[in-house]
Amino acid sequence: MIDFDQLDKTIHEKSRLSIMTLLATRGEWAFQELKAELGMSDGNLITHLRTLGTAGYVQESRDDSGTRPRTTYTVTPAGTKAFKSYVDVLEAIVKTINPG
Question: Which segments does the entry list as coiled coil (predicted)?
Fold first, then answer.
């Protein structure tokens, strides 16, 4: 029996799952790249990034050395662990539907 309470509610929201998937697969993403890839507004994206940051899943870095400040995001080790656990629960759900 699958314990659906194991699904991390912080990651489970569609936008945050999208962000975590991109960060987990590519590593570092600039804010503007995430915004373009996900088609989100500045406010919506920053709200979800802050939620993930508060949970300790995402880390923000700022580079002010160029002509324009650049903010990038990466998954933290805690975020990697949480995302892997989330995916493991999803795999367990899929296996109950398609055993074998």
Answer: none
> What range does the domain containing 75 cover?
4-97
Q: Work out the burial of residue 61: count CB atoms within 10 Å of its CB; fewer than 13 is exposed, 13-18 middle, 19 or more buried.
A: exposed
pLDDT in tens, 58-87: 999 999 888 888 999 999 999 999 999 999
Cα distances (angstroms) measured from residue 47 to each of 4, 11, 15, 78, 100: 25, 13, 10, 19, 40
* Residue 97 half-sphere exposure toward CB, CA atoms < 13 A: 6
pTM for this entry = 0.90
Q: How many domains does the chain have?
A: 1
